[in-house]
Specification:
The complex is a heterodimer.
Chain A (H helix, E strand, L loop, with lengths): L16 H6 L14 E7 L5 E7 L1 H4 L4 E5 L10 E2 L6 E2 L5 E2 L5 E7 L2 H10 L1 E6 L6 H4 L31 E9 L2 H6 L3 E9 L11 E7 L2 E6 L4 H12 L6 E4 L16 H11 L3 E4 L2 H4 L7 E10 L5 E13 L5 H11 L9 E9 L13 H19 L3 H8 L18 H11 L10 E11 L6 E8 L4 E5 L8 H13 L6 E5 L16 H28 L7 E3 L2 E4 L3 E4 H9 L5 E8 L12 E12 L6 E11 L6 H20 L5 E2 L2 E2 L18 E7 L21 H13 L1 E3 L6 H8 L7 E3 L1
Parallel strand pairs in A: 1-14, 12-13, 16-17, 20-21, 27-30
Antiparallel strand pairs in A: 1-7, 2-6, 2-8, 3-7, 4-5, 9-17, 10-15, 11-12, 11-14, 15-16, 18-26, 19-20, 19-25, 22-23, 23-24, 26-27, 28-29, 31-32
Chain B lengths: L2 E8 L2 E8 L4 H8 L18 E4 L2 E4 L11 E4 L12 H8 L9 H14 L5 H7 L11 H16 L1
Helix pairs in contact in B: 2-5
The chains are: A alpha+beta, B alpha+beta.
């Protein structure tokens, strides 16, 4: 629009940056209120056990302990939560389904007294058979982790979830088209791959915490939730309150990455407050947070059929995910894994079967990538193995099969709004793909396409104040991604005002307009569009007011470059229009922007979040350590409203991908988590930074979002695992069959006579 | 609950009073002094978010005891700026987008301040080695390394 103040397309500094470097930034964990108590959960030491009794006398005798709650104290409440299926008990009911599950809550005057009290609670268990993994959970005579039915939280899943379970399968999906069997029968070549993706802990550095009060005024919670509106919905059901009487606020989040989606510790804090009549804070440390949620592990087998030229004629996927003890969001993760495993390729015949299975492990839910990293690892490794078998360059094989811009990945869905072949060329050039690798080095690339799970329901308000400054009201949460900055840029551009006069206010269900979630990279696109519409609504109201002020027809009045243009009387700044119209030197104008599935957002997904990445690695043959010599990523974002923030998302996402590829794995031994801490669960450290990094941005204006933007933040993670696996395979001459590629695992692959965990090629 | 008398100076302000003997330095700083810029996360000295300077030496406030601060001078992230004027490191963190969620930022700033104090011209390897005890989950670390380098360069220019 105007050239006077270009607020978009520039790496403007973060609006929350100064508060974050001075220590002034306030996170949920920093919130305290007078008279506040502290809650600590007593956690199950058993993976699967009947609870015979809970002795609370010793705990209640600890000085400072005010109350000890168990599920039996919640008889007047709805004692469970869950946005898809309300199967997750606030505290274990009758039996515990995983090690680390809350079985009681100790509420005390100090955090120390609460911990002392928790140590003094005695829980008597009778062990049940532990379904430690998918294999044991799928045994024909395995006991049911969930023998009963639960209320369905989301009507969309009513049909997907059977009322009476006959086995431990939480959810099944299937999709496909064509005639897979015939295509395989006629294939020139077929390749089969099985790949295993690890269980992961997202480790957002601010552990889950919530501060709740329950009074005659209703329920009030300050929390680390990415989706405060969804937490509100769960709390309303627990307490039988209307949505209007539940207020959930999410201040700045210390990391999220999907792991703070949906309800976590808020019910614990809220029932503590309900029972004691005082505010209660439940603040976990990282060790407790590990027992709250994780990412699904997966074992995926894929067969692909090719014609003589290397064109894919069919793909056949079997997905089995270990979804842990409760439904949480595992159902959707499986559905997305099924949509994302086969890749952005032309596949005339496709069959995908997926199952998510309950086990006695920490419940799994959303984590950055959301089924894509699991599925992509198998799908892309399979293509790389096919390239080897067919004698075709792996990049050429991909380009031969890639869906062209505008083409169909999933029938009935939006066409591909990206140019992956060009993205892949950018990666190839950065990595000097044509230069042969030396001994013990290897290069791998990967592409991915995610049907962004960004269902278009967004609302925004833009308030033009009587000094001409602007408040942007959104229910979207700032968790580090920079939405507070990007949304201000969008509004400043649309209204033609200085960004220093725009403030974004977020994530308070009591005052923010509704936002469905902060996830699936939706914010720039959907909230951005809602804010643009709200800005236009505000401008149109200002035009009407200026017309009335001047006594001219509204149609004659226009707005441009931060002014309202009235024929005959000149240009009026917003503040003058407002003050003159209200007549008391004050007032304000609120513009409203609504986004739903209609118009340009009728077709789902609103955008494809694509990824194109590559890595060059070298292996230390003595230790098996994988050094990343070069990481190359392309953020195919349509238009970068703030390029530095896009690069930040891309490198951060790729680094988390490298964590899963090289280091991270939650390790269980018969239902006991062996590494529930940050010493034994190894995340990327500063010394693991790749020697060279190329973060590239492709801007082709092909998105439906503001100024052609698409979402960012997951695309550069999703194909990393497969790229690393292929690079390592090329360096050592042996294909791995699982991540992470720890030094021990790589060394073992290199020394098969003493090893395991691999297949010789 | 046993209490211990301490005299300490935090960010230039003297504090004299009694603390619970089991309080960690982080609890004292956050809960007693209200300086919430110092965070805790792993609570076992591996993530670095709770880093403070005690007599100029980096310490993990999650495991150090409040009583250990007796007769010591403490600097937290709130003490790095000079009034409204950011330190060179703080400004460089802004300029290089080295903070995303910001939860680890205090710890990195405190550690890097100590690094530049003892080694005003660190190589990239020296920066990496010194900050190995701090975890960041958002940035991929490169912007943090670049910010420390930028702050060192700007100090040279003065």
């Amino acid at each position: 629009m105007n050239s006077q103040s270009e607020s978009i397309g520039a790496s403007l500094p973060r609006s929350d940056g100064r508060s974050k470097v001075t220590g002034a930034a306030r996170y949920a964990v920093d919130h305290v209120v007078p008279d506040m108590l502290h809650g600590v959960a007593v956690r199950s030491t058993r993976a699967h056990a009947a609870i015979d009794g809970i002795g609370t006398d010793d705990a209640l005798a600890v000085p400072g302990v005010v109350a000890v709650l168990t599920s039996e104290d919640l008889a007047d409440l709805f004692p469970r939560y869950g946005h898809l299926v309300a199967d997750h008990p606030i505290m274990a009911i009758e039996k515990t389904n995983y090690m680390g599950e809350p079985v009681a809550l100790v509420v005390a005057e100090t955090i120390h007294a609460a911990h002392d009290g928790a140590d003094a609670v005695v829980v008597r268990y009778t062990d049940l058979p532990v379904l430690a993994d998918v294999a044991s959970a799928m045994e024909p005579d395995a006991p049911l982790i969930h023998p009963t039915a639960y209320p369905v939280g989301d009507a969309a899943f009513e049909e997907a979830i059977t009322d009476e379970r006959e086995d431990n399968v939480a959810h099944e999906v299937s999709l496909g088209w064509g005639d897979v069997e015939s295509a395989f029968a006629e294939a020139a070549a077929t390749v089969e791959t099985t790949a295993q993706y690890p269980k992961l802990y997202a480790y957002a550095m601010e552990p889950y915490n919530a501060l709740a009060s329950v009074t005659d005024d209703g329920v009030d919670v300050v929390t680390t939730a990415q989706h405060p509106f969804m937490v509100r919905d769960d709390l309303a059901r627990i307490f039988g309150e209307p949505l209007s009487r539940v207020r959930v606020r999410s201040p700045l989040l210390g990391g999220g990455y999907g792991s703070k989606s949906y309800t976590k510790v808020e019910p614990l804090a809220a029932v503590g407050a309900w029972a004691t009549g005082r505010p209660v804070k439940v603040a976990l440390n990282a060790e407790e947070a590990i027992f709250t949620t994780r990412a699904d592990s997966a074992v995926i087998t894929v067969r692909s059929a090719f014609d003589a030229e290397g064109r894919i004629t069919a793909r056949d996927f079997d997905i089995v995910m270990d979804t842990g003890a409760y439904t949480d969001n595992g159902t959707l993760v499986l559905a997305k894994c099924a949509n994302r495993c086969f890749g952005p390729y032309n596949i005339p015949n496709l069959r995908v079967r997926g199952r998510a299975v309950f086990t006695n492990t920490v419940s799994s839910s959303s984590y950055r990538g959301f089924g894509a990293p699991q599925g992509n690892l198998a799908g892309e490794m399979n293509l790389d193995q096919a390239a080897e078998k067919l004698g075709i360059d792996p990049i050429e094989l991909r380009k031969l099969n890639l869906v062209a811009p505008g083409g169909t990945i999933l029938p009935g869905k939006r066409g591909l709004d990206a140019d992956l072949a060009s993205d892949l060329d950018m990666v190839s050039e950065a990595l000097e793909w044509d230069t042969p690798d030396s001994e013990f080095t290897g290069t791998g690339v990967g592409v991915s396409a995610s049907d962004a799970g960004a269902y278009p329901v967004s609302t925004a308000q833009v308030r033009v104040l009587f000094d001409g400054s602007v408040l942007v009201m959104s229910g979207s949460t700032e968790m580090g991604q920079g939405s507070r900055t990007v949304l201000a840029q969008i509004a400043a551009q649309e209204l033609g005002v200085d960004i220093a006069r725009v403030k974004v206010v977020q994530s308070d269900t009591g005052s923010s307009p509704y936002e469905r979630t902060t996830g699936a990279s939706r914010t720039t696109v959907l909230v951005g569009l809602a804010i643009m519409r709200a800005c236009r609504d505000a401008l149109s109201k200002l035009e009407e007011m200026a017309a009335e002020n001047a006594g001219v027809a509204a149609a004659e009045v226009k707005s441009a470059e931060g002014m309202i243009l009235v024929p005959g009387t000149g240009s009026w700044p917003y503040d003058q229009v407002i003050r003159e119209w209200f007549g008391a030197g004050s007032g304000e104008v609120t513009g409203v922007g609504l986004v739903r599935r209609a118009g340009e957002l009728e077709l789902l997904p609103p955008f494809w979040e694509v990824g194109a990445v590559g890595v060059k690695v070298s292996i230390d043959p003595d230790t098996g350590y994988v050094n990343v010599n070069h990481l190359a990523t392309v953020g195919d974002v349509g238009f970068a409203i703030n390029p530095a923030l896009v690069e930040g998302q891309d490198l951060g996402a790729a680094t988390q991908g490298l964590g899963a590829a090289l280091f991270e794995e939650l390790i269980y031994d018969n239902g006991q988590l062996e590494n529930p801490n940050l010493v034994d669960y190894r995340v990327p450290k500063i010394g693991d930074v790749p020697d060279e990094i190329s973060t590239m941005i492709a801007e082709r204006g092909d998105g439906v979002g503001p100024h052609g933007a698409k979402g960012a933040g997951e695309g550069t993670l999703n194909p990393i695992g497969g790229a690393v696996a292929a690079a390592v395979a090329r360096a050592i001459g042996t294909w791995p069959d699982r991540l992470p590629l720890t030094p021990e695992r790589v060394w073992t692959l290199m020394n098969p006579e003493t090893g395991k965990n691999g297949t010789k090629n | 609950m046993a209490r211990v008398e301490i005299n300490t100076v935090v960010n230039g302000y003297a504090y004299s009073g009694s603390v619970q003997s089991r309080w960690t330095a982080a609890e004292f700083i956050r809960d007693e002094l209200g300086l919430t810029g110092t965070k805790t996360s792993c609570e076992m000295e591996v993530c670095g978010v709770c880093s403070i300077l005690v007599d100029g030496v980096p310490v993990s406030a999650c495991t150090a005891l409040a009583s250990d601060l007796d007769n010591k001078s403490v600097v937290t992230v709130e003490g790095l700026a000079d009034g409204d004027e950011l330190s060179a490191l703080q400004q460089a963190f802004l300029d290089r987008f080295a903070a995303q969620c910001g939860f680890c930022t205090s710890g990195f700033l405190v550690m890097a301040t100590a690094l530049l104090e003892s080694n005003p011209h660190p190589t990239s390897e020296e920066i990496t080695h010194y900050l190995e005890g701090n975890i960041c989950r958002c940035t991929g670390y490169r912007p943090i390394i670049e910010a420390v380098q930028l702050a060192a360069e700007r100090a040279d220019g003065e």
